[in-house]
Amino acid sequence: MVFAYKDYDGLGLAELIRNKEVKPEEVKEMAIREIEEKNPKLNAVIHKMYDESPIDSSGMFFGVPILTKNISQESKGHPMTAGSKALVDVIADEDSEFVRQIKNTGVIIIGQTNVPELALMGITEPELYGPTRNPWNTDYTPGGSSGGAAAAVASGMVPVAGANDGGGSIRIPSAYCGLFGLKPTRGRTPVGPKVGRNWQGASVDHILSRTVRDSAAMLDQYRLDRYNAFVAPPFHGSYLEAAGTPVAKRLKVAYTVNSPIGLTVDRECREAVEKTVKLLETMGHHVEEKAAPVDGKKIANSYIYLYFAEVASALREMERILGRNVAFNDVEPATWMLGLLGRTVNAEELLITLKYWDEAAIAMEKFHDEYDIYITPTTAHPPAKIGELDLTPMEKRIIPLVGSLRLTKLLRKTGFVDKLVNQSLERTPFTQLANLTGQPAMTLPMHLTKEGLPVGVQVMARRGREDLLFQLAGELEQSDLWIDVKKNPNY
């Protein structure tokens, strides 16, 4: 059968297969054809798994092709480099729990997507594989760290792709590529079997997708992960059903367009939020401009100190895997510097930052006693150009010179860390809050800039209320503001 593969989302393809209108093999061949045609230009897929087959014909997504992320989503017998040349020879010895569970939905994993080294950046430009490009305009980044996943879905290679989000890594690339992206509540999705938490629970795995219903249906499929250090508030309904059910009550909506760290927010990103809240008002919801009751700079610092410490820990784990010390030339200069900074973070500093996570979570719980949802821009700026955020030649020369713990400690005393926080989060200051509090947060594709690039609108809800987010997203998906990702020139 000849059919328009790219016209269907994951559930749509599964229905065709279930009704025997098309064979799983035909769908797989269509996906492979899309990858082979588009990947040379976009560089979204860095490892192909075309020989794989689905294992569960009864699953909701039987026969649907999917790509997984090249970090924390191991498939047994396949590479797991995390975008690092130091790990180029590492082969996974078992499936991650996330991969095991999505396989039980009937999907067929046909490859892995590109990530920045150790998934550390909001762009996807690793030295090992080269940059992934945005399907809307290949001069621009698709964001990160799930940039390869976003580019693959936004270009029609696959309808859904595995992703994870430790500071915005589902929401940022979804926003930049005109997709729907949900970061679920902490503890809602699988994390094991080798770890019980990623980034102290800040990072969770899920998918990004073209449609709301695919994300909702996949969230319905996860089962309790006995390895997970956290358990999300139970939900006994169907997220897929929620995505097709309008919000029954008048919501009280808080929103802001101001950066929580006091830096600039691009006019286009502000406009995306302003248009969305005006639409919500016309739908009968009460809208009020009000910022979250948390200290944005403390959130940023809490996140960045975790960031430093986790990079240092990742480099130690890399040494265990390699059986030797990691040297400067094993990793990218920025990764090396972050690892050195992580070694200067003492136990007291780290515990203080973790304590603020709980304080912020409590403050947000109280906030949601009054407001059902909280809306911000997903990012403070539209996508950067490829290479725009590279280290400068001077920075690349300085980092090896600051290659000792003593000099790194001196560097911290100069205010370098505060400057680094601002540089790192100026473009993406809104997403980290939900990672630290554990709340669910989604990005909606509600605006195209005058340059024709998508920017997103972030919506947060109380912990455990993914159902409310899906209800709202399902309604807004039918609005004229919702971007049609199929209109990008590389779809």
From TrEMBL:
GO molecular function: catalytic activity
Pfam families reported in the protein's UniProt record: Amidase
Domain of life: Bacteria
Transmembrane segments: none
SUPFAM superfamilies: Amidase signature (AS) enzymes (SSF75304)
Sections of the chain in a coiled coil: none
Domain Amidase: 31-469
InterPro entries reported in the protein's UniProt record: Amidase (IPR000120), Amidase_CS (IPR020556), Amidase_dom (IPR023631), AS_sf (IPR036928)
Signal sequence bounds: none
Protein family (similarity comment): Belongs to the amidase family.
PANTHER family in UniProt: GLUTAMYL-TRNA(GLN) AMIDOTRANSFERASE SUBUNIT A, MITOCHONDRIAL, TRANSAMIDASE
Name of this chain's protein: Amidase
Organism: Compostibacillus humi
Gene that produces this protein: gatA
